Amino acid sequence: MSVAELKERHLAATETLNNLKQRLNQTRRSLLDTDVAGYARSQGKSAVTFGPTDLVCCRTLQGHTGKVYSLDWTSEKTRIVSASQDGRLIVWNALTRQKIHAIKLPCAWVMTCAFSPTGQSIACGGLDNACSIFNLNSTTDKDGNLPVTRMLSGHKGYISSCQYVPDEDTHLITGSGDQTCVLWDITTGLKTSVFGGEFQSGHTADVLSVSINGSNSRIFASGSCDATARLWDTRVASRAVRAFHGHEGDVNSVKFFPDGNRFGTGSEDGTCRLFDIRTGHQLQVYSQKHSDDKTHPVTSIAFSISGRLLFAGYTNGDCYVWDTLLAKVVLNLGSLQDSHEDRVTCLGLAADGSALCTGSWDTNLKIWAFGGHRRVI
Amino acid sequence: MILYGVHQRFLRHPSSYQRLSLCIQISLLLNHRFSGSSSSLKFSLWKMQSGGPESASPITNRVQSLSSAETRGKHRVHAEVKRLEQEARFLEEELEQLERMDKASAPCKETLNNVETRPDPLLPSTIGPLNPSWDRWFEGPQESKGCRCWIL
Q: Transmembrane stretches, by residue range (chain A) (predicted)?
Protein backbone atom coordinates (compact mmCIF):
# COMPACT_ATOMS: atom_id res chain seq x y z
CA MET A 1 0.00 0.00 0.00
CA SER A 2 1.38 3.40 -0.90
CA VAL A 3 1.90 6.19 1.60
CA ALA A 4 -0.94 8.17 0.02
CA GLU A 5 -3.34 5.23 0.30
CA LEU A 6 -2.26 4.70 3.91
CA LYS A 7 -2.91 8.33 4.73
CA GLU A 8 -6.36 8.11 3.16
CA ARG A 9 -7.14 5.01 5.16
CA HIS A 10 -5.91 6.77 8.32
CA LEU A 11 -8.19 9.71 7.60
CA ALA A 12 -11.18 7.44 6.99
CA ALA A 13 -10.51 5.44 10.16
CA THR A 14 -10.24 8.63 12.22
CA GLU A 15 -13.51 9.94 10.82
CA THR A 16 -15.28 6.64 11.50
CA LEU A 17 -13.97 6.63 15.05
CA ASN A 18 -15.08 10.21 15.69
CA ASN A 19 -18.55 9.49 14.31
CA LEU A 20 -18.86 6.43 16.51
CA LYS A 21 -17.76 8.42 19.57
CA GLN A 22 -20.39 11.05 18.81
CA ARG A 23 -23.11 8.44 18.43
CA LEU A 24 -22.00 6.78 21.66
CA ASN A 25 -22.11 10.09 23.53
CA GLN A 26 -25.58 10.85 22.20
CA THR A 27 -26.90 7.41 23.10
CA ARG A 28 -25.39 7.63 26.59
CA ARG A 29 -26.90 11.08 27.14
CA SER A 30 -30.33 9.75 26.19
CA LEU A 31 -30.01 7.06 28.86
CA LEU A 32 -29.14 9.56 31.62
CA ASP A 33 -32.70 10.04 32.89
CA THR A 34 -31.41 11.12 36.31
CA ASP A 35 -28.28 11.31 38.42
CA VAL A 36 -27.73 10.09 41.98
CA ALA A 37 -28.63 13.45 43.53
CA GLY A 38 -31.79 13.77 41.47
CA TYR A 39 -32.90 10.29 42.44
CA ALA A 40 -32.01 10.81 46.13
CA ARG A 41 -33.98 14.07 46.24
CA SER A 42 -36.97 12.34 44.65
CA GLN A 43 -36.84 9.85 47.51
CA GLY A 44 -36.90 12.67 50.06
CA LYS A 45 -33.31 12.25 51.20
CA SER A 46 -31.59 15.14 52.94
CA ALA A 47 -27.89 15.90 53.19
CA VAL A 48 -25.63 14.75 56.01
CA THR A 49 -25.11 17.51 58.57
CA PHE A 50 -22.03 17.68 60.77
CA GLY A 51 -21.80 19.58 64.04
CA PRO A 52 -18.72 21.79 64.57
CA THR A 53 -16.87 19.12 66.59
CA ASP A 54 -18.07 15.97 64.87
CA LEU A 55 -15.19 15.25 62.48
CA VAL A 56 -11.96 16.25 64.15
CA CYS A 57 -8.25 15.85 63.69
CA CYS A 58 -7.32 13.40 66.45
CA ARG A 59 -3.68 12.68 65.51
CA THR A 60 -0.88 14.46 63.68
CA LEU A 61 1.95 12.20 62.51
CA GLN A 62 5.15 14.23 62.36
CA GLY A 63 8.50 13.01 61.17
CA HIS A 64 8.87 13.38 57.43
CA THR A 65 11.12 16.23 56.35
CA GLY A 66 9.65 16.49 52.88
CA LYS A 67 6.27 16.54 51.17
CA VAL A 68 4.13 13.48 51.69
CA TYR A 69 3.03 11.96 48.38
CA SER A 70 1.34 8.71 49.23
CA LEU A 71 -0.05 6.70 52.12
CA ASP A 72 -1.71 3.35 52.74
CA TRP A 73 -3.29 1.63 55.75
CA THR A 74 -2.84 -1.97 56.75
CA SER A 75 -5.86 -4.25 56.78
CA GLU A 76 -5.47 -4.61 60.56
CA LYS A 77 -6.50 -0.95 60.87
CA THR A 78 -3.67 0.47 62.98
CA ARG A 79 -0.55 0.95 60.86
CA ILE A 80 0.04 3.35 58.02
CA VAL A 81 2.91 3.56 55.53
CA SER A 82 3.73 6.93 54.01
CA ALA A 83 6.09 7.98 51.22
CA SER A 84 7.76 11.35 51.06
CA GLN A 85 9.96 13.64 49.02
CA ASP A 86 12.57 13.12 51.76
CA GLY A 87 13.22 9.76 50.14
CA ARG A 88 11.87 7.66 52.97
CA LEU A 89 8.97 5.42 53.79
CA ILE A 90 7.73 5.61 57.37
CA VAL A 91 5.54 2.94 58.94
CA TRP A 92 3.47 4.48 61.73
CA ASN A 93 1.36 3.15 64.53
CA ALA A 94 -1.53 5.52 63.88
CA LEU A 95 -2.95 5.15 67.40
CA THR A 96 0.24 5.95 69.32
CA ARG A 97 1.83 8.06 66.56
CA GLN A 98 5.05 6.10 66.94
CA LYS A 99 7.32 5.33 64.02
CA ILE A 100 7.79 1.61 63.69
CA HIS A 101 10.06 1.71 60.63
CA ALA A 102 11.84 4.44 58.72
CA ILE A 103 13.04 3.04 55.40
CA LYS A 104 15.61 4.93 53.37
CA LEU A 105 14.89 4.32 49.72
CA PRO A 106 17.50 3.53 47.06
CA CYS A 107 15.72 6.02 44.81
CA ALA A 108 14.46 9.10 46.63
CA TRP A 109 11.97 10.02 43.89
CA VAL A 110 9.11 7.99 45.28
CA MET A 111 5.52 8.60 44.17
CA THR A 112 3.49 5.73 45.59
CA CYS A 113 3.48 3.15 48.36
CA ALA A 114 1.26 0.29 49.44
CA PHE A 115 0.95 -2.20 52.28
CA SER A 116 0.56 -5.87 51.49
CA PRO A 117 -2.66 -7.56 52.70
CA THR A 118 -0.82 -9.37 55.53
CA GLY A 119 1.00 -6.17 56.52
CA GLN A 120 4.37 -7.89 56.27
CA SER A 121 5.57 -6.19 53.07
CA ILE A 122 5.53 -2.78 51.53
CA ALA A 123 5.75 -1.80 47.88
CA CYS A 124 6.83 1.57 46.55
CA GLY A 125 7.76 3.10 43.23
CA GLY A 126 8.52 6.33 41.47
CA LEU A 127 10.87 7.89 38.96
CA ASP A 128 13.20 4.90 38.97
CA ASN A 129 10.57 3.13 36.81
CA ALA A 130 10.56 0.17 39.19
CA CYS A 131 8.50 -1.08 42.09
CA SER A 132 10.57 -2.05 45.15
CA ILE A 133 9.32 -4.58 47.66
CA PHE A 134 10.47 -4.50 51.31
CA ASN A 135 9.81 -7.30 53.80
CA LEU A 136 9.36 -5.68 57.20
CA ASN A 137 10.65 -8.82 58.92
CA SER A 138 14.00 -8.69 57.11
CA THR A 139 17.24 -8.01 58.96
CA THR A 140 18.57 -4.54 58.37
CA ASP A 141 21.95 -4.09 56.70
CA LYS A 142 25.07 -2.66 58.33
CA ASP A 143 23.77 0.88 57.80
CA GLY A 144 20.51 0.03 59.50
CA ASN A 145 18.55 0.07 56.24
CA LEU A 146 15.93 -2.48 55.28
CA PRO A 147 17.08 -4.26 52.11
CA VAL A 148 14.98 -4.45 48.96
CA THR A 149 13.52 -7.95 48.81
CA ARG A 150 12.42 -7.77 45.19
CA MET A 151 12.62 -5.21 42.41
CA LEU A 152 9.81 -5.27 39.85
CA SER A 153 11.47 -3.85 36.74
CA GLY A 154 10.07 -3.55 33.26
CA HIS A 155 8.03 -0.38 33.08
CA LYS A 156 9.36 2.18 30.61
CA GLY A 157 8.09 5.09 32.64
CA TYR A 158 7.64 6.23 36.24
CA ILE A 159 5.48 4.27 38.67
CA SER A 160 2.58 6.54 39.64
CA SER A 161 0.47 4.12 41.62
CA CYS A 162 0.58 0.61 43.07
CA GLN A 163 -1.78 -1.65 44.96
CA TYR A 164 -1.51 -5.23 46.18
CA VAL A 165 -4.20 -7.61 44.99
CA PRO A 166 -6.41 -8.17 48.08
CA ASP A 167 -5.85 -11.39 50.02
CA GLU A 168 -2.59 -12.05 48.18
CA ASP A 169 0.86 -10.88 49.18
CA THR A 170 2.09 -12.32 45.90
CA HIS A 171 0.49 -10.07 43.29
CA LEU A 172 0.53 -6.35 42.73
CA ILE A 173 -0.84 -3.95 40.13
CA THR A 174 1.11 -0.87 39.07
CA GLY A 175 0.17 2.15 36.99
CA SER A 176 2.86 3.92 35.01
CA GLY A 177 3.86 6.94 33.00
CA ASP A 178 4.48 4.53 30.12
CA GLN A 179 0.66 4.41 29.66
CA THR A 180 0.31 0.84 30.90
CA CYS A 181 -0.78 -1.01 34.00
CA VAL A 182 0.96 -4.23 34.94
CA LEU A 183 -0.03 -7.20 37.09
CA TRP A 184 3.13 -8.58 38.74
CA ASP A 185 3.99 -11.90 40.29
CA ILE A 186 6.13 -10.75 43.20
CA THR A 187 7.50 -14.23 43.87
CA THR A 188 9.21 -14.36 40.48
CA GLY A 189 9.48 -10.62 39.87
CA LEU A 190 7.91 -11.11 36.43
CA LYS A 191 4.98 -9.47 34.70
CA THR A 192 1.87 -11.64 34.60
CA SER A 193 -0.06 -9.27 32.34
CA VAL A 194 0.36 -5.87 30.69
CA PHE A 195 -2.74 -3.73 30.25
CA GLY A 196 -2.51 -1.29 27.38
CA GLY A 197 0.68 -0.22 25.66
CA GLU A 198 1.92 -0.05 22.13
CA PHE A 199 0.21 -3.11 20.70
CA GLN A 200 -2.94 -3.22 22.76
CA SER A 201 -5.95 -1.01 23.28
CA GLY A 202 -5.50 1.10 26.40
CA HIS A 203 -4.66 4.49 27.78
CA THR A 204 -3.09 6.96 25.40
CA ALA A 205 -1.24 8.92 28.08
CA ASP A 206 0.37 8.45 31.49
CA VAL A 207 -1.54 6.30 33.98
CA LEU A 208 -1.78 8.20 37.28
CA SER A 209 -3.84 5.99 39.53
CA VAL A 210 -5.14 2.44 39.93
CA SER A 211 -7.78 0.96 42.23
CA ILE A 212 -8.69 -2.71 42.63
CA ASN A 213 -12.29 -3.74 43.23
CA GLY A 214 -12.61 -4.88 46.85
CA SER A 215 -15.55 -7.15 45.93
CA ASN A 216 -13.94 -8.76 42.87
CA SER A 217 -10.17 -8.55 42.80
CA ARG A 218 -10.02 -9.48 39.10
CA ILE A 219 -11.43 -6.07 38.25
CA PHE A 220 -9.52 -2.83 38.59
CA ALA A 221 -9.85 0.75 37.38
CA SER A 222 -7.17 3.13 36.15
CA GLY A 223 -7.09 6.91 35.67
CA SER A 224 -4.92 8.69 33.15
CA CYS A 225 -3.66 11.93 31.68
CA ASP A 226 -5.79 11.05 28.62
CA ALA A 227 -8.77 12.28 30.68
CA THR A 228 -10.37 8.84 30.84
CA ALA A 229 -10.75 6.15 33.40
CA ARG A 230 -10.68 2.56 32.22
CA LEU A 231 -11.98 -0.65 33.68
CA TRP A 232 -9.88 -3.80 33.32
CA ASP A 233 -10.40 -7.50 33.86
CA THR A 234 -7.07 -9.13 34.76
CA ARG A 235 -8.06 -12.18 32.69
CA VAL A 236 -8.27 -10.05 29.54
CA ALA A 237 -5.24 -7.85 29.12
CA SER A 238 -5.71 -7.13 25.43
CA ARG A 239 -8.36 -4.48 25.91
CA ALA A 240 -10.14 -2.53 28.60
CA VAL A 241 -13.63 -3.69 29.56
CA ARG A 242 -14.76 -0.09 29.10
CA ALA A 243 -13.44 3.47 28.86
CA PHE A 244 -15.18 6.18 30.87
CA HIS A 245 -15.26 9.64 29.34
CA GLY A 246 -16.47 12.90 30.83
CA HIS A 247 -13.53 14.51 32.56
CA GLU A 248 -11.85 17.45 30.85
CA GLY A 249 -8.41 16.93 32.31
CA ASP A 250 -6.04 14.38 33.81
CA VAL A 251 -7.74 11.81 36.01
CA ASN A 252 -5.46 12.05 39.03
CA SER A 253 -7.21 9.59 41.30
CA VAL A 254 -9.57 6.62 41.00
CA LYS A 255 -11.13 4.72 43.89
CA PHE A 256 -13.67 1.90 43.89
CA PHE A 257 -16.97 2.52 45.63
CA PRO A 258 -17.46 0.23 48.66
CA ASP A 259 -20.21 -1.82 46.95
CA GLY A 260 -17.83 -2.73 44.12
CA ASN A 261 -20.27 -1.76 41.36
CA ARG A 262 -19.12 1.83 40.95
CA PHE A 263 -15.95 3.83 41.18
CA GLY A 264 -15.10 7.46 41.77
CA THR A 265 -12.60 9.68 40.02
CA GLY A 266 -10.87 12.97 40.85
CA SER A 267 -9.48 15.16 38.11
CA GLU A 268 -7.33 18.09 37.10
CA ASP A 269 -10.60 19.67 35.86
CA GLY A 270 -11.60 20.19 39.50
CA THR A 271 -14.46 17.70 39.54
CA CYS A 272 -15.03 14.27 41.00
CA ARG A 273 -17.32 11.81 39.23
CA LEU A 274 -19.08 8.57 40.01
CA PHE A 275 -19.27 5.91 37.28
CA ASP A 276 -21.25 2.68 37.15
CA ILE A 277 -19.13 -0.26 35.98
CA ARG A 278 -21.95 -2.40 34.64
CA THR A 279 -23.72 0.19 32.49
CA GLY A 280 -20.82 2.59 31.97
CA HIS A 281 -23.04 5.54 32.95
CA GLN A 282 -21.68 8.62 34.64
CA LEU A 283 -23.98 8.71 37.67
CA GLN A 284 -22.89 11.94 39.30
CA VAL A 285 -20.60 14.94 38.98
CA TYR A 286 -19.26 16.55 42.16
CA SER A 287 -18.29 20.10 41.36
CA GLN A 288 -18.19 23.26 43.42
CA LYS A 289 -16.15 26.42 43.18
CA HIS A 290 -13.91 27.16 46.12
CA SER A 291 -13.86 30.21 48.39
CA ASP A 292 -11.79 32.13 45.81
CA ASP A 293 -14.56 31.44 43.24
CA LYS A 294 -12.21 29.23 41.22
CA THR A 295 -11.93 25.53 40.51
CA HIS A 296 -8.85 23.69 41.72
CA PRO A 297 -7.54 20.30 40.60
CA VAL A 298 -8.44 17.26 42.67
CA THR A 299 -5.34 15.42 43.88
CA SER A 300 -6.82 12.41 45.65
CA ILE A 301 -10.14 10.86 46.71
CA ALA A 302 -11.46 8.29 49.18
CA PHE A 303 -14.93 6.99 50.10
CA SER A 304 -16.21 6.36 53.61
CA ILE A 305 -16.98 2.73 54.32
CA SER A 306 -20.64 3.01 53.36
CA GLY A 307 -19.93 5.25 50.40
CA ARG A 308 -22.10 8.02 51.80
CA LEU A 309 -19.12 10.36 52.08
CA LEU A 310 -16.57 11.19 49.39
CA PHE A 311 -13.38 12.84 50.62
CA ALA A 312 -11.53 14.90 48.01
CA GLY A 313 -8.21 16.73 48.39
CA TYR A 314 -7.56 19.75 46.19
CA THR A 315 -4.41 21.63 45.21
CA ASN A 316 -5.45 24.75 47.15
CA GLY A 317 -5.40 22.89 50.47
CA ASP A 318 -9.15 22.26 50.70
CA CYS A 319 -10.33 18.80 51.57
CA TYR A 320 -14.02 18.62 50.81
CA VAL A 321 -16.33 16.07 52.36
CA TRP A 322 -19.08 15.40 49.80
CA ASP A 323 -22.43 13.80 50.53
CA THR A 324 -22.28 11.38 47.60
CA LEU A 325 -26.06 10.93 47.45
CA LEU A 326 -27.00 14.62 47.44
CA ALA A 327 -23.81 15.88 45.70
CA LYS A 328 -23.31 18.57 48.33
CA VAL A 329 -20.17 19.62 50.18
CA VAL A 330 -21.03 19.02 53.85
CA LEU A 331 -17.67 19.87 55.38
CA ASN A 332 -14.25 21.19 54.45
CA LEU A 333 -11.49 19.55 56.49
CA GLY A 334 -9.18 22.26 55.17
CA SER A 335 -11.04 24.89 57.18
CA LEU A 336 -11.12 23.00 60.47
CA GLN A 337 -8.85 23.45 63.46
CA ASP A 338 -5.52 21.65 63.12
CA SER A 339 -5.97 21.26 59.39
CA HIS A 340 -3.04 20.90 57.00
CA GLU A 341 -1.10 24.01 56.03
CA ASP A 342 -0.64 23.01 52.42
CA ARG A 343 -2.10 20.84 49.67
CA VAL A 344 -3.49 17.41 50.60
CA THR A 345 -1.87 14.93 48.21
CA CYS A 346 -3.21 11.60 49.45
CA LEU A 347 -6.12 10.20 51.40
CA GLY A 348 -6.87 6.79 52.84
CA LEU A 349 -9.55 5.24 54.97
CA ALA A 350 -8.80 2.81 57.80
CA ALA A 351 -9.97 -0.74 57.13
CA ASP A 352 -12.88 -0.48 59.59
CA GLY A 353 -13.85 2.94 58.25
CA SER A 354 -13.36 4.62 61.64
CA ALA A 355 -10.71 7.09 60.52
CA LEU A 356 -9.42 8.96 57.50
CA CYS A 357 -5.72 9.69 57.06
CA THR A 358 -4.59 12.63 54.97
CA GLY A 359 -1.05 13.35 53.76
CA SER A 360 0.16 16.76 52.74
CA TRP A 361 2.89 18.92 51.26
CA ASP A 362 3.24 20.33 54.79
CA THR A 363 5.16 17.06 55.57
CA ASN A 364 2.55 15.81 58.04
CA LEU A 365 -0.10 13.14 58.08
CA LYS A 366 -3.32 13.68 60.00
CA ILE A 367 -5.93 11.27 61.30
CA TRP A 368 -9.57 12.38 61.28
CA ALA A 369 -12.33 10.57 63.16
CA PHE A 370 -15.89 11.15 64.35
CA GLY A 371 -15.84 12.51 67.88
CA GLY A 372 -19.44 13.59 68.25
CA HIS A 373 -22.61 11.86 69.36
CA ARG A 374 -23.58 9.04 67.04
CA ARG A 375 -27.25 8.36 66.36
CA VAL A 376 -28.31 4.84 65.47
CA ILE A 377 -31.08 4.64 62.88
CA MET B 1 19.02 23.14 43.38
CA ILE B 2 18.42 22.25 39.74
CA LEU B 3 17.03 18.87 40.73
CA TYR B 4 14.87 20.54 43.39
CA GLY B 5 13.38 22.94 40.82
CA VAL B 6 12.82 20.12 38.39
CA HIS B 7 11.17 18.13 41.15
CA GLN B 8 8.76 20.96 41.95
CA ARG B 9 7.79 21.24 38.31
CA PHE B 10 7.12 17.52 38.04
CA LEU B 11 4.59 17.76 40.82
CA ARG B 12 2.66 20.62 39.20
CA HIS B 13 2.41 19.08 35.75
CA PRO B 14 1.57 15.39 35.88
CA SER B 15 1.52 15.11 32.09
CA SER B 16 5.20 16.01 31.92
CA TYR B 17 6.29 13.26 34.33
CA GLN B 18 7.43 11.07 31.49
CA ARG B 19 9.58 13.80 29.96
CA LEU B 20 11.08 14.52 33.36
CA SER B 21 11.79 10.85 33.95
CA LEU B 22 13.53 10.71 30.58
CA CYS B 23 15.64 13.79 31.44
CA ILE B 24 16.75 12.23 34.70
CA GLN B 25 17.47 8.94 33.02
CA ILE B 26 19.54 10.66 30.33
CA SER B 27 21.56 12.51 32.96
CA LEU B 28 22.15 9.22 34.77
CA LEU B 29 23.17 7.53 31.54
CA LEU B 30 25.73 10.25 30.82
CA ASN B 31 27.56 9.08 33.91
CA HIS B 32 27.54 5.46 32.75
CA ARG B 33 29.46 5.17 29.50
CA PHE B 34 28.65 1.58 28.68
CA SER B 35 24.90 1.42 29.19
CA GLY B 36 21.86 2.01 26.97
CA SER B 37 22.06 4.67 24.32
CA SER B 38 25.67 5.56 25.18
CA SER B 39 26.92 2.17 24.02
CA SER B 40 25.01 2.34 20.71
CA LEU B 41 26.48 5.81 20.06
CA LYS B 42 29.99 4.46 20.69
CA PHE B 43 29.27 1.54 18.30
CA SER B 44 28.10 3.93 15.56
CA LEU B 45 31.26 6.05 15.97
CA TRP B 46 33.38 2.88 15.79
CA LYS B 47 31.65 1.80 12.57
CA MET B 48 32.22 5.19 10.91
CA GLN B 49 35.91 5.15 11.80
CA SER B 50 36.62 1.46 11.05
CA GLY B 51 36.70 1.79 7.21
CA GLY B 52 35.32 -1.77 6.84
CA PRO B 53 32.97 -3.08 4.15
CA GLU B 54 29.90 -1.89 5.97
CA SER B 55 31.00 1.70 5.98
CA ALA B 56 29.88 3.82 3.04
CA SER B 57 30.15 7.43 1.92
CA PRO B 58 28.30 9.93 4.11
CA ILE B 59 25.82 10.80 1.27
CA THR B 60 24.90 7.15 0.68
CA ASN B 61 24.52 6.73 4.43
CA ARG B 62 22.14 9.70 4.52
CA VAL B 63 20.06 8.36 1.57
CA GLN B 64 19.90 4.92 3.16
CA SER B 65 18.84 6.38 6.49
CA LEU B 66 16.12 8.52 4.82
CA SER B 67 14.69 5.49 3.02
CA SER B 68 14.69 3.41 6.19
CA ALA B 69 13.11 6.32 8.05
CA GLU B 70 10.36 6.42 5.42
CA THR B 71 9.76 2.67 5.81
CA ARG B 72 9.62 3.04 9.56
CA GLY B 73 7.14 5.93 9.08
CA LYS B 74 4.89 3.77 6.87
CA HIS B 75 4.97 0.98 9.43
CA ARG B 76 3.99 3.40 12.18
CA VAL B 77 1.08 4.81 10.19
CA HIS B 78 -0.03 1.30 9.30
CA ALA B 79 0.06 0.28 12.97
CA GLU B 80 -1.86 3.43 13.90
CA VAL B 81 -4.52 2.67 11.25
CA LYS B 82 -4.89 -0.85 12.63
CA ARG B 83 -5.27 0.56 16.13
CA LEU B 84 -7.94 3.04 15.00
CA GLU B 85 -9.88 0.33 13.17
CA GLN B 86 -9.71 -1.89 16.23
CA GLU B 87 -10.97 0.95 18.46
CA ALA B 88 -13.83 1.50 16.03
CA ARG B 89 -14.82 -2.18 16.32
CA PHE B 90 -14.80 -1.90 20.12
CA LEU B 91 -16.99 1.21 19.97
CA GLU B 92 -19.43 -0.53 17.64
CA GLU B 93 -19.71 -3.37 20.16
CA GLU B 94 -20.29 -0.84 22.92
CA LEU B 95 -23.03 0.86 20.87
CA GLU B 96 -24.79 -2.47 20.41
CA GLN B 97 -24.62 -3.12 24.16
CA LEU B 98 -26.02 0.34 24.87
CA GLU B 99 -29.17 -0.44 22.86
CA ARG B 100 -30.07 -2.98 25.57
CA MET B 101 -28.67 -1.05 28.56
CA ASP B 102 -30.62 0.11 31.65
CA LYS B 103 -31.14 3.82 32.10
CA ALA B 104 -29.12 5.61 34.79
CA SER B 105 -32.00 5.54 37.30
CA ALA B 106 -31.43 1.81 37.87
CA PRO B 107 -27.83 2.08 39.14
CA CYS B 108 -28.74 5.31 41.00
CA LYS B 109 -31.40 3.40 42.94
CA GLU B 110 -28.96 0.58 43.61
CA THR B 111 -26.35 3.07 44.87
CA LEU B 112 -28.77 4.62 47.33
CA ASN B 113 -29.90 1.24 48.65
CA ASN B 114 -26.35 -0.03 49.11
CA VAL B 115 -25.16 3.12 50.88
CA GLU B 116 -28.01 3.09 53.39
CA THR B 117 -27.53 -0.52 54.40
CA ARG B 118 -23.92 -0.20 55.63
CA PRO B 119 -22.91 1.00 59.12
CA ASP B 120 -20.51 3.96 58.83
CA PRO B 121 -18.43 5.20 61.79
CA LEU B 122 -17.87 8.62 60.20
CA LEU B 123 -21.56 9.50 59.94
CA PRO B 124 -23.52 11.32 62.65
CA SER B 125 -26.48 9.00 61.94
CA THR B 126 -25.91 5.44 60.83
CA ILE B 127 -27.55 2.04 60.97
CA GLY B 128 -26.23 -0.44 63.49
CA PRO B 129 -24.57 -2.37 64.80
CA LEU B 130 -22.08 0.08 66.24
CA ASN B 131 -18.60 -1.15 67.01
CA PRO B 132 -16.98 0.15 70.23
CA SER B 133 -13.54 0.04 68.62
CA TRP B 134 -14.61 2.87 66.32
CA ASP B 135 -14.00 5.23 69.26
CA ARG B 136 -10.45 4.02 70.03
CA TRP B 137 -9.12 7.27 68.54
CA PHE B 138 -10.55 9.16 71.53
CA GLU B 139 -9.54 6.78 74.29
CA GLY B 140 -6.59 7.52 76.50
CA PRO B 141 -4.10 10.35 76.23
CA GLN B 142 -3.67 11.60 72.69
CA GLU B 143 -0.83 14.07 72.96
CA SER B 144 1.47 12.55 75.52
CA LYS B 145 4.20 10.00 74.79
CA GLY B 146 3.82 10.44 71.07
CA CYS B 147 6.87 9.98 68.89
CA ARG B 148 8.05 13.36 67.72
CA CYS B 149 11.46 12.42 66.40
CA TRP B 150 12.41 13.86 63.03
CA ILE B 151 13.70 11.48 60.41
CA LEU B 152 16.91 12.98 59.02
A: none
